[in-house]
Each structure stands twice: as structure tokens, then as C-alpha cells.
Amino acid sequence: MLRIENIHKTFNPGTINEKIALDGVDLELKDGEFVTVIGSNGAGKSTLLNAIAGVWLVDEGKIFIDDIDVTKLAEDKRAKYIGRVFQDPMMGTAADMWIEENLALAHRRGKKRGLSQGIYPDERATFKALLKEFDLGLEDRLSTKVGLLSGGQRQALTLIMATLQSPKLLLLDEHTAALDPKTASKVLDITEKIVRKSGLTTFMVTHNMRDAINHGDRLLMLNNGKIILDISGEEKKKLTVESLLERFEKASGEEFANDAAILG
Fold first, then answer.
1. 216: which DSSP letter?
2. What H or E segment, with its residue span, contains residue 83?
3. Residue 219 · residue 38 · CB < 8 Å
4. By CB distance 3.0 to 4.6 Å, which of 3, 45, 60, 128 could disulfide with 8?
5. Minimal CA–CA distance to 223: which of 247, 198, 241?
6. What is the DSSP string of 1-61?
7. pLDDT tens sequence across 206-247
């Protein structure tokens, strides 16, 4: 579902601030695969996600989504293939619109749409049942403005909206980083439930090593713009933070430099 071939990205080339962010990355994600991505600050994980999303174009290499070459497509052109949830709970929803209006916009994505006709009864019933399934306490608050929700509720709603139309690829950009630990755990559980139920191909960048280990089918670790570890199957299930750190140090020749990621 996702194929990346030898992509490179350098910021501020030829200047004193030159930074090689991606250095010949190759990667394939199978249909329905849930991959978590971890790395220290500046490792290239967010750059890789943004390159896939089209936030900026790569300097070299190719990116394919479902065998469609999107390498030169702008961000808005790639959006029809991608669902995305950002780190900031304030992004991805319209604060002054009701919960059901936000869901309706997401539900009608790619179709002729408008709110002039309001929300159809069958849509409202669908939204209510969906929210109830995730135990958010929102199924009876469809006419509440999204701006009144907590950060966790809003992020969970953004996640539901991003997956309503079953995108070819779901990108999660440190989507629990701004939440308290209890709320982050709840949002991750909802993430896992949505991804598994819909069989979504998912690429989750996380700041938390434990979350990268405990979620998904496969774990990638980046360092200096390269993928240095790619762990899946039974091997991933046996991982601990300590064993992952040992493998990182062996592969990179240096210590992992992000205490927050280690401690969670």
C-alpha cells in the first residue's frame, strides 16, 4: 500500500544550517500493516511522515501509494488517499461547528457536499452509533460545539473523522503527544480498535518508546535520516525498552538521546 524508494531530503542545502533529514530511505508497507516509528529528536521520523503526506517534496527518490506515483503531487492532491491526525488536538476539526457537522463533513469527503440541507437522519443515527462504540460520552452530544470538548475527546473525534472514508493510508503524527498519560492511553486504544476493525494501513510516529513497542505489527527506528531497525512479528512482541535501546546502540554506535521517549 505504501512504497518508498531511496528518498532524500536536505533542508537549507549549501548553507551553514544544512541538515540531511532523510538519507536514502527505502520502505514498504503491506495492505493493512500497522507500523510504529520511533527515533530521537532530529532522527527524521516527522520528516518522513511529512514527505509521505506531501507537506514538502523530496529531493530524490519515489513515493507510491497503492501503486500510484504521488512523488510530485502536492499535499492537497494526496489528501484523497490519506487520512491524517496531527499532534495538536485543535487541528483537524472545526471548533465552532457541532460534532455531527464535523462528522458530516468527513463522511461526505470526496462527494458533493454542503450543510445547507443539514444532517440527514440516517447520518445522525450512524454517527451516534459510532461514537457510542468508542465510549467517549459524545453520542448524546451531537449538537455540542467541538471547541467545548476536552483535548482527548477532540483528538478521538479527529481520529474517527480521518478514518470514516477508509483512506488507503492513515498517518498519525505523534497524535497523543499533547495529551495526559491516561487520555493518551485511551486514544491509543481507540486507534488500535479503528485500525484493526477497518484493516487500515497505518504509519504512526510516536514520541513514546513504550507505545511504539506495545502497538502495531512492526516497529521502525530512525537515526540520522536512515532506518536502522525494522522489527516485526514474534521478535517485536518480545521487545522491551531495555532490549530496544541495546539494539539501537549496537546498530547506531551511539546512545539513544531522548529521555522523554524512554521514560514515556
1. S
2. strand 82-85
3. yes
4. 60
5. 247
6. -EEEEEEEEEESTTSTT-EEEEEEEEEEE-TT-EEEEEE-TTSSHHHHHHHHHTSS--SEE
7. 989 999 999 999 999 999 999 999 999 999 999 999 999 999
Specify which residues 85 forms β-bridges with: 172
The pLDDT mean for the chain works out to 91
Report the alpha-carbon distance of residue 17 to residue 15 in Å, rounded: 5
Map residue 174 onto helix, strand or coil: coil
The length of the chain is 264
The grid coordinates listed for 221 are 527506528
Distance of CA 102 to the CA centre of its chain: 19
Q: Is there a contact between 44 and 22 (Cβ–Cβ < 8 Å)?
A: yes
Rounded CA-CA distance 152/183 in Å is 6
Tell me which residue has cell 475527546: 153
235-250: burial string, b at 16+ Cβ within 10 Å, e else: ebeebebeebeeebee
Q: Cell 532530529, residue? A: 42
DSSP letter at 240 equals -
Measured distance CA(171)–CA(200) in Å, rounded = 10
Regarding beta strands 68-69 and 226-232, do their DSSP bridges make them parallel or antiparallel, or are they unpaired?
unpaired
User: Hey, what's the cell of 241?
Assistant: 525498552
**Has residue 136 got a pLDDT over 90?**
no
pLDDT at 92: 86
Torsion angle of alpha carbons 86, 90, 92, 96, nearest 10°? 180
pLDDT at 117 over 70: no
